[in-house]
Amino acid sequence: MTPADAPAARTALDHSAHPPWPLHPQPLPGETLMSWLARTTALYSLINTADLLDGLGVDTSGVDLDRYTREPVLTALAQRGGSTAERLREMTLAGYTPWLLDSTDPSECDFDTYVHQFSVLLPPGLAMADRRRRTPAAGTWLPWVSKLDTRACPLCIDALDTDADIAVMMAHQYPMLTSCTKHLCRLEFCAVIPGRLVFWDRTPAGSDEHAPPIPVPAVVAEIDRRTAAAMTSGSVELVAGRVQAAVWFRLLRTVVDEVSTPLVRTGWWAKPLSAIWKSTGCSRPLRTSWVPFEQLPWDEQANVLFAAATAIIAVENDEITASGADACLLRPRRYEPVDPGTPPTGSRSPVPTRSAWDGVIAAIDAAVAAARVDSDAARSLFGFARTGCRTEEDVDELAYAFVELGIRLDWD
Ligand SMILES: [Zn+2]
């Protein structure tokens, strides 16, 4: 990580080749590096992760390889494990720079630059003095990185065909995600022995099974879906269009800070902020005033994320006043109606670089995004789409398509 340990690494790795381990499972999608190494050791008896790292110049005491692993070590592990250094780097937090965070070195992560370059709910500059109260000391903070215990989705673990696939998932270890985006249930704290066992913190009395999964609010599920998409695809579809993952993570962190602002510091804007917290049914944890999100206890982080998710969806649905300079990123572009009966023809007009259909597609995407989280929007969209159905089978097909799109139809 530092120039000082590079020479040691060179001498330790001057072997020209690293013969492959006889047994080496392939990394699972989303798995962390240490989880993969632990699953590898599970295939052998009497071997632990330190043995796999032996001779690579890695100090295994207190070093977090899941955060950052030096390139020569990645290369050696890739050769031994039948993978590539690039694939293994993606299994560390460093593989998510610079879009999730600027660097895994806290001295290169500036709180103010990350958290306050955007403004969504509050006008830029409002309550700057208050924001400074939450600014951690320089060199002590990484965005979205908390001291979390391991979390996993109980239903994902239940669905595994084999214990050999029990793994620690990268995205589940950082507090910007509350839920499993597949099962829409809360991620649960646990201890994982990769390739072997999970011990759940929440277990029914007298059982070693997990307690029933806890569903998360629809707005949280929607924001988590976008965050997961940002991590896996590098971009997120918003109603105004696609934004890079880097924009999404900073925008979300901005809203997290904005909903953490004490109402007394926000003047007129206390009203929408108060409405957001009221609609969550939780009260703003007091220490959010002076403690950065990453250093809050888990249950308080979950409440702040719930408020942030509520705020983002409310801005998108035009339900609250947002006065930030970047609130436009969450609002639909002005809708320009298109007459589907008279498509533009090439003979009459030059082909525009941006087709009018882009607007239609964006509008449909926006309607679908809204319908996923809002039963009124879902009802309207279904009613609109149903006008094209001629038979009951058509209606059934339509209902099935809605379910496929993640739109609930079980409204009252
Ligand atoms: Zn799951």
TrEMBL record:
The lineage's top-level taxon is Bacteria
What Pfam families does the database record attribute to this sequence? TniQ (PF06527)
Ranges for domain TniQ: 22-187
Region listing for Disordered, in residue ranges: 1-24, 334-353
Write down what this protein is called.
TniQ family protein
The protein's organism comes out as Rhodococcus navarretei
